[in-house]
Queue: 4 jobs
Job 1
Amino acid sequence: MTHAPDPADDHWSAVAQDWADLWGTFTDPARRALLAATGTGPGTRLLDVGCGTGELLALAASAGAAVSGADASPGMVDRARAAAPGADVRVAPAEALPWPDGSVDVVTFVNVLALTDDHEAALAEAVRVLRPGGLLAVCGWAERETNDLAVVHAALAADDGEPVDPDEPEDPWHEEAPVRGVLTDAGLTVEHVEVVEVPWAVRDVDAVVRGVLLGEDAAGVAERGPVVRAAAEPFRAPDGGYRFRVAARLLVARTPAR
Ligand SMILES: C[S@@+](CC[C@H](N)C(=O)[O-])C[C@H]1O[C@@H](n2cnc3c(N)ncnc32)[C@H](O)[C@@H]1O
């Protein structure tokens, strides 16, 4: 099985600038927690997989780390290179990383692992490129009751005619136990778990609509924008901006010392 990026699947390049503008920095509190929990500092060799527009690369570089990034989307990679000029950023899928065995100290996935086609292959690649005793950090959104944006997504689903199920099961990627499970299955030992508040603060309702409907065409935004506006209303701040409570969960796990 090959894992060469398929240009037809690259919807991220078209939204790279909007991603950077609207979502780029919002997980910074979790990124800082990740750098602290992994002890990233001068000389740490850190590889960020699914590096997006490069915000973690820039933070790690400013902490003195030697940083590399991989992302399947050429448009995201262009912006990551601009955000972290000293970093070695490559267009590459998580499932086939072009780095040698044992060549990095820390591998990170921030809001990425759940998006991969084959998370087992992605984790196997992370373990391969890590040195013995290296650290893998996985960060993603926590359960929906910690995430105000779930209200907006529920309104969109209802508008689409999807049945409302009050007992809808949680997405396993948003729970601690399943993520722990995939890390353990990959041969890693979880050493640290932390939930970090990452509020999404947006300047006005137009930006809320652009952010939530990222990647939709003009017709989709015209049709669904009013639903987003109405659902966002409870989250309007006194200054006219919008503030959504969101929590991210960080797990840090270690590879065997060999
Ligand atoms: C939600 S964004 C997160 C970007 C960044 N990690 C952040 O936290 O801002 C997901 C990113 O993962 C990348 N991605 C998704 N699947 C991937 C895969 N299998 N291999 C490499 N990159 C992938 C996308 O191109 C996109 O840049």
Job 2
Amino acid sequence: MTIDPKRFRAAMGQFASGVTVVTGRGVDGRPVGATISAFSSLSLDPPLVLFCLDRGATCLPAFTQGPAFIVNVLASDQADISNTFAGPAEDRFATVAHGSGANGCPRLNGCLATVECAREAVHDGGDHVIILGRVTALDVHDDRDPLVYFRGAYALLG
Ligand SMILES: Cc1cc2nc3c(=O)[nH]c(=O)nc-3n(C[C@H](O)[C@H](O)[C@H](O)COP(=O)(O)O)c2cc1C
């Protein structure tokens, strides 16, 4: 059965998700990051998470070969950061306040949660790859609402 890509996207868009920026370091040590909604918790024991990355992403080698990454869970007032890390900006970090996590990857300020990971595995996922991370450190701020992505647009809770 052939699945029409438009309908596939429309069906997947009915699944509301949060928005993250996954950050890491390139082989040259430069910070890299991309907006990712295909993020999921995977396992509690051991603590594993996963995200799915387009094989065409320029940051692909940083995440398939680099030792670590950070999943920065965006808050409702961070849509501009989501757009920055999904857009063509040359230096995405120039306009976004950030520091460094314990694993050496960029850690964005003002996020709902910071999930530091060591790369555990990389699996095939068609035109994407599935990157598994073992959680090495966590930070949680539950005083704000999440940025939500639904039907191809940002949404707010409630
Ligand atoms: C809300 C939102 C969610 C996204 N989710 C994903 C995703 O889960 N996986 C992915 O590969 N790209 C996703 N993208 C697209 C990437 O952020 C974008 O293609 C980015 O530029 C890829 O990084 P690159 O510049 O290194 O190629 C998303 C974009 C937006 C705006």
Job 3
Amino acid sequence: MSAANDTDGFGWVSRTIHWAMALGVIGALGFGTYIARMEVNLSNLWMFAAHKTVGITLLALLVLRVVWHLVSRPPEPLPAAPWKSAVARWAHRAFYLLLLAVPLSGWVASSATGIDTVVFGRWTLPAIAPASEAWEEAGFAVHSVLTKLLALLILLHIAGAVTRRDGTLRRMIAGRAA
Ligand code: HEM
Ligand code: HEM
């Protein structure tokens, strides 16, 4: 099992990042929705901190993924009808955009609350927005809308992945299409 990607398949590094992020993103969507319905208080503050830790980790994984794909080019998609290939290409671009914008908007909004963004209970990140109610409201509104788009995109992506019977899914799980 090779670490690097080649023209025929995904190495284990790309596959591990893909599935770790898939798990983390789906988890953060569910958990984020859960905590957003709560009034913040001293007993549930740790849940918000946990969500921030997961979200910032996902942002770090995204950077790692982009750097890795520059070092080790992923394989070309398997041939498909032109419209399907185009939808997949745009969906993947939209993923990269949202996987950047969602955690950044969360970080902006969190900064605006004036509460420190601490990851793993240990490292305090700098504030990237002024402490202000207007920034906080706008930041969380953007964060909320973008997470809904991300959830829709995931549904489209899963539908595309499981309906293709050409080894595309196997390639992301086992490395090779056949
Ligand atoms: C890929 C990463 C992330 C995902 C998928 C995600 C997802 C979500 C979702 C679905 C919600 C609920 C939105 C709503 O229904 O209004 C939410 C809320 C929240 N997110 Fe994130 N988030 C991510 C990253 C972050 C980051 C990096 C931070 C901060 C550093 C953050 C801070 C928050 C906070 C504080 C809330 C609660 C907002 C409230 O109380 O209304 N999120 N997130
Ligand atoms: C939930 C969060 C997910 C995100 C953010 C995500 C993101 C991506 C992205 C950006 C790619 C393009 C290749 C790359 O950059 O690595 C990709 C490829 C792929 N994903 Fe996902 N994915 C997710 C979940 C899933 C799930 C649940 C499945 C399976 C049901 C899946 C199946 C695949 C397959 C088969 C490919 C390879 C496509 C090809 O070879 O052209 N993904 N994913």
Job 4
Amino acid sequence: MKRLLHIVASPRQERSRSAMVAEHLLARVMQRHPALEVERLDLFAANLPAFDHAAVEGRYHLLAGHAVDPAEAAIWQELKAWTDHFLSFDAYLIATPMWNFGIPYRLKQYIDILTHPGLTFRNDAQGNVEGLAQGRRTILIAASAMPFGTMPEIDGLDFQLAYLKAWLGFIGVTQVDAIRVAGTFGPEDVVAAAMAQAFTDADQLADAL
Ligand SMILES: Cc1cc2nc3c(=O)[nH]c(=O)nc-3n(C[C@H](O)[C@H](O)[C@H](O)COP(=O)(O)O)c2cc1C
């Protein structure tokens, strides 16, 4: 790992549970790898472009094997700039809360900005998909009120880690580690135990990198 993009998907700033664990992990990683370049991308502060009519039209033109229309060129240049930025890193740390069983809309918007044919994946003539972000490593920090990981009967409600892993696989990122910060709502001792477990998991992962 030389350049790591630290993606912050919670708007809670210093009160964010996922951010606390991500910062803890990062501090430990930096002790061991002081030359690692880290850039922070706060998705609730970033000026993410809307993914609207022109962007969608351009995508369908690309999928049909055509160039985008001049009317769509500006937004596609912007999307390409975001993708080039994303692909300039060889590692990602994504810290995210669970919102309504999935991810916050700003992280989904970022994913919609990044995920296009010719930018982060391509289709071959047979329709097979090849991810263009291969060789990169990702660490996911997933916070949730519900205690995922300890109650198999709720696993089917997890569209947070399940979704992020599916998306990463689609763009070719197969080296993925995940830490849950699960059970962040409830009695103080329950939340403290969830945080302690997440910090321990973060230490172990940082030491193994
Ligand atoms: C809008 C919203 C929706 C939420 N939906 C869920 C949910 O579906 N399942 C869950 O376990 N927790 C849910 N939570 C709780 C958060 O996932 C939990 O508080 C988490 O620790 C927040 O992470 P953060 O502190 O990094 O923002 C929700 C919180 C908010 C604000």
